[in-house]
């Protein structure tokens, strides 16, 4: 039998970047070792990689990308490491530093907002190029947050998840606010609370339930319809026909988290079938690979996706 070709590769990791790239207690190094099945030995500024030729090449590409991110002033996160590893199996590790160069905007504290996955980059590019974009995918893929960095008018359908809207105390605004909390959180982070309130008072930003869009025409606006899986087909059609001249629309949703009645059809699902052939409408399907929250969230999303795929055949029999 022919054995695997074992090789060594020595990388130079400057001391000022080593702790950032290696992680607390070398956690990132250990993860790369386990995932790629290589041995990694760190001595001063040198990093020796030992293992099968393909695995060593992948590990070297991962460290090269993490070093590039660190040189640009990024704090390396577990998500960076996980995504660099997944890209290495597709021979696309160099895409990580390319993504980092695409700064969409900055938060009020100066933190850059960037796409962190190839799927997110395709989503942002589609928003730039097309008048209407549907961003569909699981929780944590940045569908709303990335679009929010450019948004002026925001709208989210007030579909009840467990409670009826009318049972909440207070006036209409206080009834709607719980459903809009994720939008407010993103706006506060991007703009700052004071700037957000000022723009709200001037009418430059509007946050409203979907029902408030009926009868209006929205010109020269950036409009986000969030949680669109909870719209009915009639609501979705009503919303899409509100669009006026000079406007851009992003529709976000997660088809696996519908709060509609069991027998109701989602407006998001219908729109995907009806509008897929229209050139100026883009559809971006984000997946568990694009989850940028805690790595455990990515594993949870993937586990549910695998479970649901196994359930589909049994439902049809």
Structural summary, described in words:
44% of the residues lie in helices and 16% in strands. It contains twelve helices and eleven strands. Strand 2 (39-43) and strand 3 form a beta hairpin. The longest helix is centred in the last third of the chain and has 22 residues, at 295-316. It starts with 5 loop residues before the first strand and ends with a helix. Residues 159-168 have low confidence and may be disordered.
Draw up the topology in text.
Layout: E1 6-12, H1 15-22, H2 27-36, E2 39-43, E3 46-52, H3 53-71, H4 78-88, H5 95-100, E4 105-106, E5 112-113, H6 118-129, E6 132-136, H7 143-148, E7 153-156, H8 172-191, H9 193-202, E8 206-209, E9 222-225, H10 233-240, E10 248-253, H11 267-274, E11 281-285, H12 295-316
Parallel strand pairs: 6-10, 6-11, 7-8, 7-9, 9-10
Antiparallel strand pairs: 1-3, 2-3, 4-5
Helix pairs in contact: 1-3, 3-4, 8-9, 10-11
């Amino acid at each position: 039998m022919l054995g695997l070709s074992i090789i060594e590769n020595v990388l130079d990791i400057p001391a000022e970047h080593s702790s950032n790239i290696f992680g607390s207690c070398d956690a990132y190094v250990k993860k790369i070792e386990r995932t790629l099945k290589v041995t990694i030995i760190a001595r001063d500024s040198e990093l020796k990689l030992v293992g099968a030729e393909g695995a060593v090449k992948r590990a070297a590409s991962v460290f090269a990308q993490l070093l590039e991110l660190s040189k640009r002033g990024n704090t390396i996160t577990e998500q960076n490491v996980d995504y660099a590893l997944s890209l290495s199996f597709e021979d696309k590790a160099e895409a990580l530093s390319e993504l980092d160069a695409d700064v969409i905007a900055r938060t009020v504290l100066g933190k850059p907002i960037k796409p962190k996955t190839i799927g997110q980059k395709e989503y942002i590019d589609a928003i730039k190029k097309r008048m209407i974009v549907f961003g569909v995918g699981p929780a944590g893929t940045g569908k709303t947050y990335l679009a929010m960095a450019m948004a002026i008018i925001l709208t989210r359908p007030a579909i009840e998840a467990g409670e009826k809207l009318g049972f909440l105390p207070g006036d209409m605004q206080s009834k709607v606010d719980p459903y809009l909390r994720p939008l407010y959180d993103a706006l506060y982070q991007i703009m700052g609370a004071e700037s957000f309130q000022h723009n709200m008072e001037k009418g430059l930003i509007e946050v409203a339930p979907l029902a408030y869009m009926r009868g209006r025409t929205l010109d020269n606006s950036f409009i986000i319809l969030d949680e669109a899986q909870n719209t009915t087909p009639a609501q979705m059609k009503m919303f899409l026909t509100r669009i006026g001249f000079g406007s851009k629309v992003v529709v976000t949703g997660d088809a696996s988290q519908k709060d509609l009645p069991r027998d109701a059809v989602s407006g998001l699902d219908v729109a995907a079938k009806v509008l897929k052939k229209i050139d100026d409408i883009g559809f971006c399907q984000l997946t568990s690979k694009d989850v940028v929250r805690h790595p455990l969230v990515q594993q949870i999303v993937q586990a549910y996706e695998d479970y649901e795929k196994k359930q589909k055949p049994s439902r049809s029999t």
